[in-house]
Amino acid sequence: MSENAERPTRLVPATPDNIAAAARCLREGGLVAMPTETVYGLAALATSDAAAASIYAAKGRPSFNPLIAHFACGDDAAREAVLDDNAKLLAAAFWPGPLTIVAPAAPGCRVSLLARAGLDTLALRVPGHDIARALIEAVGAPLVAPSANRSGRVSPTTAAHVLADLDGRVDWILDAGASPHGLESTIVGCIDGEVTLLRPGAIVRESLEAVLGRPIAQAADNPTAPAAPGMLASHYAPRAAVRLNATEVRANEAALDFGGALAGFPAKARLDLSPSRDLAEAAAHLFAYLRELDASGAKTIAVASIPERGLGEGINDRLRRAAAPRVL
Ligand code: TXA
Ligand code: MG
Q1: Which residue intervals of 31-84 are DSSP H helices?
Q2: Is the dihedral of CA 21, 26, 29, 33 positive or negative?
Q3: Where are the alpha helices (DSSP H) in 220-311?
Q4: What is the pLDDT of residue 38?
Q5: Ligand 1 lining (C-beta closer than 6 Å)
Q6: Amino acid 231: pLDDT
Q7: Closest by alpha carbon to 100, among 129, 71, 135?
Q8: Does the model's pTM come out above 0.85?
Q9: CA angle 66–83–205, rounded 5-degree value
Q10: Helix (H) and strand (E) counts in the chain
Q11: How many other C-beta atoms lie within 10 A of the C-beta of residue 214?
């Protein structure tokens, strides 16, 4: 716990008693880091402008960047937004699970306008993690939750990552071990009968297309699609510079390898996302390994190339943002 902490932070196992205590804290407007199947989220009461304001302050997040509302079940989510046929199909196929649907907010939507950054759409998610849903149920109201990292930094996949970024800025951290997917939810816009991929993530494009029975457009291809304001070019940034598609490791570089492609080169530090070239394993390791290599003190992290298929689309999206010029 840090001295002069604005909020003394308690990191505790996600037991029923601790979930109940964290739920009470959330009802009173507090902040709780909760495990989800993708990454840890920084949760607050979705219906409260003051609670949403605390999230923006704790993360140092620009308030034009809206938050995802998390629900215990699809029926609760459907009350707050207008889900068209595409949204209903996708929700039935993937909820609970790592899919976020952006849809027009329902008239009388209870989610704080500040959390929605004033938009007339709402991002909805029903997490596939038992602890996250138990917490939402215990609160009895939806929770808004961005990833529990300082704005622009690498997303957290363990409770220790959350503590490293947010000690003194969050009331409770509920520890349920490492996040199984390690990559954030896939975000799709379902507006005016169009489906748009706003952020590639833990559910691969091919699975969405199989359910819809047709290809889906990338946000940039569709000028009428809602923007995902948080998809800033520089994001997920470690302190070190990031060099993509490396075919060798240069002096003083750390290596983020895939399938042993960089194994023959000496490196300041080295981790292999998946020696067997398994993209699910690579996604689960991505953020933790970026943090670990960053801690080696290397000035640059050289990253082996990763195939653009399946989960590779989301992994490469995060790596491109980690490598982008920093404008923080
Ligand atoms: O897996 C996840 O989705 C994690 C866990 C904690 O649930 N959450 C997460 O939240 O990644 P965050 O805030 O780090 O990313 C949410 C993204 C941002 O890029 C934001 O701009 C976008 O969702 N977003 C939120 N509401 C939106 C809306 N109404 N329209 C378009 N994009 C929206
Ligand atoms: Mg984030």
Answers
A1: 49-59, 74-80
A2: positive
A3: 279-295
A4: 98
A5: 36, 38-39, 41, 65-68, 98, 100, 102, 119, 121-123, 125, 145-147, 184-185, 187, 198, 226, 228-231
A6: 64
A7: 71
A8: yes
A9: 75
A10: 9, 15
A11: 10
